[in-house]
Amino acid sequence: MTSALRTLRLPLLGLVVLAVVVTGLVLVLDRGGEKTVTARFTSAAQLYEGSDVRILGVPVGRITSVTPDGTDVVVTMEYDEDVDVPADAKAVIISPSVVGDRYVQLTPAYTGGATMKSGAEIGTDRTAVPLELDQVYQSLDDLTVALGPDGANSDGALSDLLVQTARNFGGQGASFRQTLSDFADLTTTLDDNSDDLFSASSELQQFLETLADNDTTVRRFNSSLADVSTMLAGERTDLAKALSQLATALGHVRRFVQQNSDGLSTDIKGLNRVAKVLVKQRAALDETLGTAPLALNNLYLTYNPQAGTLDTNANLAMLGDQIQTDPALVLCTVAESVDDTGGLCDALKGVLPRPGALAALRGKKQQASASDVLSDATLGGLVEVQQ
Description:
This protein is of the alpha/beta class. It has 13 helices and 10 strands. The chain has an 8-stranded mixed β-sheet with strand order 7-1-4-3-2-6-5-8, with no helix packed on it. The chain has a two-stranded antiparallel sheet with strand order 9-10. It is elongated.
């Protein structure tokens, strides 16, 4: 019986070992690939091989080695290759409690962009370590020594400060309490109006940026303003006299207006009517202003200073020659002053003799003798005659 049990135990033990090996292989295969990152810290107290590597507090890997290197400590980490980490991520040692294991946190979490490659190194400029408890104690001790009898209070200055402060605040507890209460109300008011405050700050920033962008112009303006101020300072006596005289003149004007208010009112009303007439007749006024210089020039040319008369030349002989040469041209010149469409001129050309008809008639009259009888069957070219 005993030998049979021993014979049965050996196969069972082999099956157990085989199951353990298969389970380990499955875990290794499921684990997948990993990325390796090296970080340099100024210290790595309570950080050990196997400590967690986390992102947002969630474990994503582990520390594989912690090695001193000069004044730094080189920490090698591995994390799952499926986890994306920003290329410029930082490594921070987190201490969850005063005593206990610490872990490295990669921050910030990935939101997009380039990712950290396997084998990357994070320098000391992108790493941070927690403040140690002994450092806090040492800082408190240094402060105590600095304020003690061997430091700032070596001549009793700190004691005098405390005594004088006690005297100043003696009996002022209620006022001090009210000050704190008012300050709390102030902070509450600022918090309730934080949006307006930030908006005002933003607008002030934009204004300052505008001034900075126009620095040259602002400096030139300030320089010009300084020059004006200097000039006014140099002329302040004359300026004071001018202002005094202006005040006197304004006083006279005010008295004149008060004494002649009725007459000024009537004159202003009359001026208003004249202005309205000028507005209504602005076309005629424009024509008058356009022709008046020519009329005055003609009047100047017609004045005979020797005889004291206005001499004119009607040029009737030339007009007669023009009428005999082309009567339609003379009449069209007159007609265009009242009809600029040309219709009246066309009508006159249709009924008047053709150009040169009257001149030909005049030439025949000059060639005939006194006893000759004028005979013109064409009536001066008005009708056509069959030859």
